[in-house]
Design a protein that fits this description.
Elements: E1 6-10, H1 14-26, E2 30-34, H2 37-47, E3 51-55, H3 63-72, E4 81-85, H4 90-99, E5 103-106, H5 111-155, H6 161-170, E6 179-191, H7 193-199, H8 202-222, E7 226-231, E8 234-239, H9 248-272, E9 278-295, E10 298-304, H10 306-317, E11 322-326, H11 327-332, E12 337-345, E13 354-362
Parallel strand pairs: 1-2, 1-3, 3-4, 4-5, 9-11
Antiparallel strand pairs: 6-8, 6-9, 7-8, 9-10, 11-13, 12-13
Helix pairs in contact: 2-3, 5-6, 8-9
Length: about 375
C-alpha cells in the first residue's frame, strides 16, 4: 500500500465531501473526491484508492450499485469500502454488507468513529497487499522451480543427477555449447544380442534389457559419467565433460570393471534361461568435439571425434567379459590397474593399426 494512503470520498452533498476531505487531509491522507456513483466508478479505476468512503443515497447510480460493480471488476485490486448511510436499520446494514461493503458509518458521522474505521480498513488493506505480494513472489518462485525441474529432467537424460543439478543451479548452460575437450570414452554392448533378438520372444528381450540396464545404469551414475548413446544393448559413456574431472581415466576404469562384473552375474542367469549373451567394453582417451544436437524440447548431448570411433571399434573387438582400451588410456591408468599390453591391432574401419591393451583388474592398495 502506498504512503500516504489515498482515500476516495464519494457524496453528492458538497459540504459533506469538503468536511471529510479536510479531516482526512489534516491527518496526512491523500484525498480524491466524487459527487455521484458514475464519477465514483471512474475515479476508482483511475486513482486506484486504498480506501473508499461511499455514500449510499446518490443520484444516477447509488452506493450499493457502485460497490457491487467495484467488487465484480476483476481488473481492480482489493479496495475496502466503508458505506455511509443515514439508514442504520439491521436490514439496511445487511444489504450494504451483502452488496460488498466492508464496513459502514451512519449519518450524522461521528468523526472519532470514522477515523477509527478508516485506520482499521487501511490496516486490512495493507495486510491484504502484503499477502498479495507474498503470493506473487511464491508464484514466481514456484514457476522458477518448475522450470528448474524441467531443465534438470532434460539434463538427467545424459548426466548423473548431481551433475545435472549442478549445471542448473549455476544458472548457466553454456557448458553444453559446442567445444573441444579431452575425454575418456567408454562403449559397451552385449555379445550375441543380435542373434538373440532375432530368435527370442519380445518379452524375453525386454526382460534381458531391463536387467542389463538396471545393473549398469546405477554404476554410470555412481561414477558421474555422461551417458550419450543409449540404443538397445549399446551404451556410450564419457568422462571429463560437460563438467571437468581430474580423475577421468580412473573413473572410466573403475566403471568398466564394475560393469563387467555386474553383467557377468547376469550372464550366468541368462545362460540358465537359454540366452547366450555376454558383455564387451572398449575405452579410449583423446580429444573430441562435444555439444548439444537436436531441436527445441528434444536434444541430446554428444561427442564426436577419432577417440569416439576408436572406443567404439575396441568395443566391437572385445570378447565376452573383456575390457579393451587404447594404449594412451592404458598408460594413464597403469598406476591403479593391472593392464595387459596386446600390441598394435588393425581395427575394422580404422586407417592405421592402434595400440591396444586389456584391462584386467585394479591394483591392490
Amino acid at each position: 500500500m502506498r504512503t500516504p494512503a489515498r482515500i476516495l470520498v464519494v457524496d453528492d452533498v458538497a459540504d459533506n465531501v469538503e468536511i471529510l476531505r479536510m479531516r482526512l487531509s489534516s491527518l496526512g491522507y491523500e484525498v480524491v473526491v466524487a459527487s455521484d456513483g458514475e464519477q465514483a466508478l471512474a475515479q476508482a479505476r483511475e486513482a486506484l484508492p486504498d480506501l473508499i468512503l461511499l455514500d449510499i443515497m446518490m443520484p444516477k447510480v447509488d452506493g450499493l450499485e457502485v460497490v457491487k460493480r467495484l467488487k465484480a471488476d476483476k481488473s481492480l485490486p482489493f479496495i475496502p469500502v466503508i458505506l455511509v448511510t443515514a439508514k442504520a436499520t439491521p436490514k439496511d446494514v445487511a444489504a450494504g454488507l451483502d452488496a460488498g461493503g466492508d464496513d459502514y458509518l451512519t449519518k450524522p458521522i461521528d468523526h472519532g468513529a470514522m477515523l477509527a474505521r478508516v485506520r482499521a480498513m487501511l490496516r486490512i488493506k495493507a495486510l491484504h497487499d502484503e499477502v498479495q505480494t507474498l503470493n506473487r513472489e511464491l508464484e514466481a518462485k514456484v514457476h522458477e522451480q518448475v522450470e528448474e525441474l524441467a531443465r534438470v529432467s532434460r539434463l538427467r537424460r545424459f548426466l548423473a543427477p548431481q551433475l545435472a543439478q549442478a549445471i542448473v543451479s549455476a544458472g548457466d548452460e553454456k557448458v553444453l555449447e559446442n567445444h573441444r575437450r579431452e575425454v575418456v570414452a567408454l562403449f559397451c554392448d552385449l555379445r550375441g544380442f543380435t542373434g538373440f533378438s532375432e530368435a527370442a520372444e519380445p518379452e524375453d528381450i525386454m526382460l534381458v534389457l531391463k536387467e542389463y540396464h538396471g545393473a549398469v545404469g546405477p554404476l554410470i551414475r555412481k561414477y558421474e559419467g555422461t551417458l550419450d548413446r543409449f540404443t538397445g544393448d549399446g551404451m556410450m559413456v564419457f568422462f571429463n565433460d560437460p563438467l571437468p574431472c581430474e580423475d577421468a581415466p580412473e573413473r572410466a576404469a573403475r566403471l568398466a570393471l564394475e560393469m563387467r562384473d555386474a553383467v557377468a552375474a547376469l550372464v550366468t542367469s541368462w545362460a540358465k534361461r537359454g540366452h547366450k549373451l555376454g558383455l564387451g567394453i572398449g575405452m579410449a582417451q583423446g580429444y573430441a568435439t562435444l555439444g548439444r544436437i537436436g531441436f527445441e524440447d528434444r536434444f541430446d548431448y554428444t561427442a564426436i571425434g577419432a577417440v569416439i570411433n576408436l572406443a567404439s571399434r575396441l568395443c566391437a573387438e572385445a570378447a565376452n567379459g573383456e575390457v579393451l582400451m587404447s594404449g594412451r588410456l592404458a598408460a594413464a591408468v597403469a598406476a591403479i590397474a593391472e593392464v595387459e599390453e596386446l600390441g598394435e591391432r588393425m581395427l575394422k574401419g580404422m586407417a592405421r593399426p592402434a595400440a591396444v591393451a586389456r584391462l584386467q583388474s585394479l591394483t591392490a592398495a
